[in-house]
User: What shape does this take?
Amino acid sequence: MTAAEFARKIRDRERAVGYWVVLDAPVATERLARLGYDYVALDGQHGFIGTSGLLANLMAIDAGGRSAGLVRVESGDPAVIGRALDFGAAGVIVPLVDSAADAARAVSAARYPGAGRRSYGPMRSMLRIGPTPAEADATVLVLAMIETPEGLAGIEEICATPGLDGVYVGPSDLCLAVGGRFPNDPEVADVFEAALERIRTAAADAGIAAGIHNPSGEQAARRLAEGFTFATVAGDLNHLEQSAAAHLKAATSA
Assistant: This one.
């Protein structure tokens, strides 16, 4: 899937399913990118992928040939967003967006002058995205993470931000934001689900995509059925551990 095809799918609010990568293991990332996921997202915030690893893993996604490459950047800093896009990311997931002003700054960082303030230097991305500024602006996606009390309180204004392509729920932080003592705290389950409904509704009203992080394909299917337009299955480190544990159990229980 090309970046342009993926951008159209997300902006048209078509269903999309992605996979989450935290390990700097390009060979493994390439194999994941051959499976048929619409996108593979690299975690540059909480994952173990540095600058050179970000480039290598984006190249691995492209080599896989079936998925678009997204990057959750470490912050909304324009230099950080610009670097991920210059490396060839089809879009960025920007964490800790608390307000429409934060969302607007992220959009500006991803768009070239006339629409934003991205510096021109697409040394790799121009091979696949663009290369003219207008073509790049029309292709790359900007997704704002909703994971804080402030972000939830201002969700309608955030979704109305011109140029924002979608919002993305970080459920662990959002659970803490609504009063949970820890992620998936059952005591705030109803409040958490109400927050998800508010986010989905705000995105739908604004005509933008709404995505969410999930620990499994089963939960991703549930969230898509509820109205989220894209869902990520997370992720390589946890699934490696789970698979290894299951094989160990099978081998030692005979």
Summary: The chain has a mean pLDDT of 97. The first helix runs from residue 3 to 11. The first strand starts at residue 16 and ends at 21.
